[in-house]
């Protein structure tokens, strides 16, 4: 309204000042700080440093512990499943599948070292009469008893398998024929010294012992051991015949 009223220009000057000298933007959480890095000619250049939000240490440790625990549980379950697949459920001795797997390993080791390997087939004497006299439950106890006595006397390297019914196959790595036969005879004496738990009955067995020849199939070796076992039966039982 007045020619010399300077309020408007002053107002305009403040607005212009804001445009000419803008205020720096407020730093936000998402803003990326800048760093000045020297370059070869002495000048500096701006570079952005990325901000990485680190995970919570406690949560990470707990997640790793849970993962390791789960891995351990899976490994334990796998071992148990493998043992169940290779083990006779009644006696705890290896079954045929487990024996075949163990025999392959021992045969490969024997070939590398050039060592000998004996095999014995063990057949409990008069097992049918034992079942008929005491019942099948005692018959099962007799099988468990035999395996327990044998395992207590065997070396860690020896391998025992329930081959079927009352027949067992014993693999004796790094053992010559005479030493293997002597070991089986010693097992017979140890078995005769302990009655079947809960009874006064004593077990005996007949055994055939052979050496696995170089290049011989396992089935053929077992057949020879079986023939020697039948010879032991015909010889009066409770004895060891080599083949």
What does it look like?
There is one protein chain. By secondary structure, the chain is α+β, with helices and mostly antiparallel strands. The chain has two domains: 33-86; 88-242, Alpha-Beta Plaits. Helix content is 50%, strand content 17%. It has seven helices and seven strands. The chain has helices spanning 7-20, 57-86, 96-113, 127-134, 136-153, 177-192, 218-234, and strands at 34-38, 44-48, 117-124, 159-164, 167-173, 205-211, 240-242. The strands form two sheets. The chain has a five-stranded mixed β-sheet with strand order 4-5-3-6-7, sandwiched between helices. A hairpin with a 2-residue loop joins β4 and β5. α4 (127-134) packs across α5 (136-153). The longest helix is centred in the N-terminal third of the chain and has 30 residues, at 57-86. The radius of gyration is 41 Å and the shape is globular. The N and C termini lie far apart (135 Å).
């Amino acid at each position: 309204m007045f020619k010399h009223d300077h309020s408007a220009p002053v107002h305009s000057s403040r607005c212009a000042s804001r445009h000419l000298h803008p205020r720096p933007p407020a730093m936000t959480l998402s803003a990326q700080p800048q760093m000045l890095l020297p370059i070869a000619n002495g000048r500096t250049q701006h570079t952005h440093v990325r901000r990485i939000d680190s995970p919570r240490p406690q949560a990470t440790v707990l997640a790793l512990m849970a993962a390791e625990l789960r891995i351990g549980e899976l490994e334990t379950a796998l071992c148990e499943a493998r043992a169940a697949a290779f083990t006779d459920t009644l006696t705890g001795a290896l079954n045929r599948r487990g024996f075949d797997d163990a025999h392959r390993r021992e045969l490969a080791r024997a070939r590398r070292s050039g060592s000998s390997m004996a095999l014995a087939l063990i057949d409990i004497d008069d097992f049918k009469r034992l079942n008929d006299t005491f019942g099948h439950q005692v018959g099962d106890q007799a099988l468990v008893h035999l395996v327990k006595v044998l395992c207590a006397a065997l070396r860690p390297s020896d391998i025992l398998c329930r081959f079927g019914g009352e027949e067992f196959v014993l693999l004796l790595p790094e053992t010559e024929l005479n030493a293997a036969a002597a070991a089986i005879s010693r097992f017979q004496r140890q078995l005769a010294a302990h009655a079947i738990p809960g009874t006064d009955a004593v077990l005996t067995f007949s055994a055939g012992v052979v050496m696995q020849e170089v290049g011989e199939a396992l089935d053929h070796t077992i057949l020879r051991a079986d023939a020697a076992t039948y010879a032991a039966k015909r010889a009066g039982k409770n004895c060891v015949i080599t083949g």
